[in-house]
Amino acid sequence: MKYAILFYVFLFLFFIGCILLGVFVYDKRLSRNHGLEVPKGFHRTEEINIDPVSGEKTRVYYNPDTGERFYKKEK
To answer: Residues 25, 30, 32, 35: is their CA dihedral positive or negative?
Structure first.
């Protein structure tokens, strides 16, 4: 019985560890490239995201060579 409880505690901690690893290492959304200067090769699009709470606008720029998107906060 003692080993069964330890097994499930270990399994739970392993599961939580995998989730944290996925969030902080593999999830690229946390490191979105918001910035003030648009990098070279990026073109302005007509796409604007507006935060419904703060009303802050974010303009989307696109690099056709890499397919990467850059998000710049607007005033």
So the answer is: negative
